[in-house]
């Protein structure tokens, strides 16, 4: 007999949506497009600035509520409250992606009686004054939530707010982008990843991918890299610290060893993952909650040097298994870790192999979507 059950009606709620391409926006898009045939899927977000727009993107219905602009990372949108109230009347499940204070408040005021799923991406770390005002709303919303999804156990352990709700928490790791997973699979098959005729003194390429902002630890990285022999450092991304970082490179005479590529497209980034020997994620603040670039590099069979932040970061790539983990902000530990990977080529390749295996076991979009669907 056929299955006559009605499809579940699910609404994804976030600040912004594609073509904005932050880490959270990418996850919202993966869920919306990946489960659109299994459930009746809709998306409600805000405009960065401008009038309300309703559109279909890759067969997903998306409403962007009008906004006066963005202040302290938060869209100023009054129509969002009305849209959520109206759309929620026909929903079985609403999935909110936090932190998004406007979403919490709108849900509590909407009169919505259905199920609430929260994906907790990270704590609010920097806006301390706003946090004092927002905390009672957030606590009421977390009490209201039926399930809280986190990407690693570290998100619960390192959070200042989640511990009282740990019984509601479910771990669902992120999945590496399909295009990257497919490209890396083909490349690894071609390369066969068994390197013969190892060159003992070849220049090892370290790769950094991210915005050039304070919490990414780029200054620490350059200070540590000064004393790394037989190596090159490629910096991908731009941001407010770019000029300062270039001055440090000049000051230490590292122009031939450090290359800034700025923002590059997806295809060029894939080529950089292939060309590098290891990824470095030297973040110093738990604003770095996971580090999606870790699983992207690991998909290409590359080990990762990350930091032991009280967040999901050290849970993704494991110390001495798929890479090395160092203390955040510790120049000498980071320097030692990079030199160790330069000097231990066989171990570096073995870590890269295990990194790829970890991606296959834990970090595919298919696995992520299966787990989300099970929760629905």
List keywords for this structure.
single chain, 376 residues, alpha/beta, Rossmann fold, 2 domains, 8-stranded mixed β-sheet, 6-stranded parallel β-sheet, 14 helices, globular, Glycosyltransferase
Please explain how this structure is put together.
By secondary structure, this protein is an alpha/beta fold. It has two domains: 9-171, Glycogen Phosphorylase B (Rossmann fold, 3-Layer(aba) Sandwich); 178-362, Glycogen Phosphorylase B (Rossmann fold, 3-Layer(aba) Sandwich), CATH 3.40.50. It is 40% helix and 20% strand. The chain is built from 14 helices and 16 strands. The protein has an eight-stranded mixed sheet with strand order 3-4-2-1-7-8-9-10, sandwiched between helices. A six-stranded parallel sheet has the order 13-12-11-14-15-16, sandwiched between helices. A two-stranded antiparallel ribbon has the order 5-6. Strand 11 (204-209), helix 7 (218-225) and strand 12 (231-236) form a beta-alpha-beta unit. Helix 3 (101-110) crosses helix 4 (128-144) and helix 7 crosses helix 12 (331-343). The model is unreliable at 196-201 (pLDDT under 50).
């Amino acid at each position: 007999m056929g299955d006559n059950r009605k499809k579940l009606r699910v609404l994804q709620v976030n600040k912004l949506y594609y073509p904005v391409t932050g880490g959270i926006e990418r996850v919202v898009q993966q869920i919306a497009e990946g489960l659109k045939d299994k459930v009746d899927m809709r998306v409600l977000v805000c405009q960065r600035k401008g009038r309300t727009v309703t559109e279909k993107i890759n067969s997903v219905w998306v409403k962007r509520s009008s906004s006066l602009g963005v202040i302290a990372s938060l869209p100023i949108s009054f129509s969002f409250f009305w849209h959520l109230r109206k759309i929620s009347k026909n929903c079985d499940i609403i999935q909110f992606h936090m932190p998004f204070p406007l979403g919490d408040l709108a849900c509590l005021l909407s009169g919505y009686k259905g199920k609430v799923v929260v994906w907790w991406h990270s704590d609010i770390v920097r806006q301390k004054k706003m946090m004092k005002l927002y905390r009672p709303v957030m606590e009421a919303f977390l009490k209201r939530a039926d399930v809280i999804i986190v990407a690693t156990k570290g998100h619960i352990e390192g959070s200042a707010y989640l511990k009282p709700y740990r019984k509601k928490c479910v771990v669902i790791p992120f999945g590496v982008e399909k295009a990257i997973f497919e490209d890396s699979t083909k490349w690894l098959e071609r390369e066969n990843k068994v390197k013969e005729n190892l060159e003992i003194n070849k220049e090892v390429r370290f790769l950094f991918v991210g915005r050039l902002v304070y919490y990414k630890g780029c200054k620490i990285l350059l200070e540590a890299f000064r004393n790394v022999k037989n190596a090159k450092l490629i910096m991908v991304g731009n941001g407010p610290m770019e000029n300062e970082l270039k001055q440090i490179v000049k000051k230490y005479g590292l122009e031939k060893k450090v290359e800034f590529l700025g923002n590059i497209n997806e295809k060029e980034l894939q080529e950089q993952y292939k060309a590098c020997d290891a990824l470095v994620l030297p973040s110093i603040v738990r604003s770095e909650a996971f580090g999606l670039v870790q699983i992207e590099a690991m998909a290409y069979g590359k080990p990762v040097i990350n930091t032991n932040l009280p967040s999901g970061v050290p849970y993704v790539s494991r110390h001495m298994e798929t890479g090395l983990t160092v203390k955040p902000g510790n120049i000498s530990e980071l320097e030692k870790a990079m030199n160790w990977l330069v000097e231990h080529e066989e171990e570096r390749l073995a870590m890269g192999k295990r990194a790829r295996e970890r991606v296959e076991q834990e970090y595919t979009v298919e696995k992520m979507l299966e787990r989300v669907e099970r929760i629905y």
